[in-house]
Description:
Layout: H1 4-12, H2 19-32, E1 37-43, H3 49-54, E2 85-90, H4 96-126
Antiparallel strand pairs: 1-2
Bound molecules: zinc ion.
Zinc ion binds at residues 45, 47-48, 72-73, 76, 78, 82-84.
Amino acid sequence: MAFNWLDNFHHDMEKAPNYAEKALAAYRLGMRSGGSIVGVRVEFGPCCVEAAASLQYEKGAIYHPDDAPQLPLADCRLGERCQSVYRPVMAYEVSPEKAAQLKAHAQEREAERKAALRKKRRDSKNS
Ligand SMILES: [Zn+2]
């Protein structure tokens, strides 16, 4: 699968301070290019199980990259050696209805992002 290299990469390395940012950006790009990725899931390592439970993260929940919990969780007992990883959720893993719903949500997010960018450009021009 195309994302295997990314999975291995995640597991083998200590988390850089920008791990979450980089991984989520990669998934965001994947989603934007119209591929079969429809969201991300967090696979909590043993280091984060308690922290995740106290934050009431739902097991197996699917997030848009913009909404995903930041890894490592603040209360992870391993800190930057956290073993939790993001996993892509592919369209074929969920029902067609769920996939359509996730894609629609992603498109809304994308539209919001573009609108915010346009506004930012306008504001900087006017200042
Ligand atoms: Zn952890």
